[in-house]
Amino acid sequence: MKIGIIGTGNMGRILVEAFIDGKAVSPSSMVITNRTISKAKVLTDRYKYLRVGENAADVASQSDLVFVCVKPLDVCRVLDEINPYLDEKKCVISITSPIDTNQLETKVSCSVIRVIPSITNRALAGVSLITYGENCSEFWKKNVENLFTKVSVPVNIQERITRVASDIVSCGPAFFSYLLRRFITAAVTETEIDEETATTMASEMIVGLGELLKQGHYTLPSLQEKVCVKGGITGEGIKVMEEELGDLFEHVFQATHAKFNEDLEKVNLQFSNHNSLK
Fold it and tell me: What is the CATH architecture assignment of 165-252?
């Protein structure tokens, strides 16, 4: 199976690296490109047999499975560019959440899938969110799920939970990185610990927390109960968090959904305009 990746920005590059390092794909079976070709060629310094195509059409012509890893408002243009090089045996994957599989199917005649990856996939961990097009073949459903199983835990989602699922899986690492940095900054500000030591301790703590959950030793509620001894120091800290966090996370989801709705309007208008010109 030949895999093409159009766009080697943050997520496109992560997919290239994860697939190859996770031995899901060999470098020689992958061809990539980017609007700025030099950004794609950087990856060939690390992966000797990785090929770089001249443009999106070149990649699509050489690939069975084509990943479109560009910004939402660039997807229409790329699909139009590669459509002449697609047939019913091929499959296109978009990684952007505002564009649904129905919209993708209006642009191409091959199988389509939307996959929302996470930066955690770079560590061959975390979740990838998958939504199959209505006309997607069983062949591609099986092969794409197998592909992502090697770099993540693939989870099939319905359209109605796309945004919140993406908030948890894809945005979550940034949200919790921010909270962890604030946690470290407070420790440095309020005590005599230095930033380097606090960062090392907090980072290893969060890795250990992940392992406890992954290995099934505790659930989130049972872990908190285990550490939070009645009348103890941890309990005092939890009281402060309960009082001061308030509706923080509710507001986070409200903000991400509002921005998502803005993006949806722009994308829907673009697809409507493109389809009306046919």
Answer: Orthogonal Bundle (1.10)
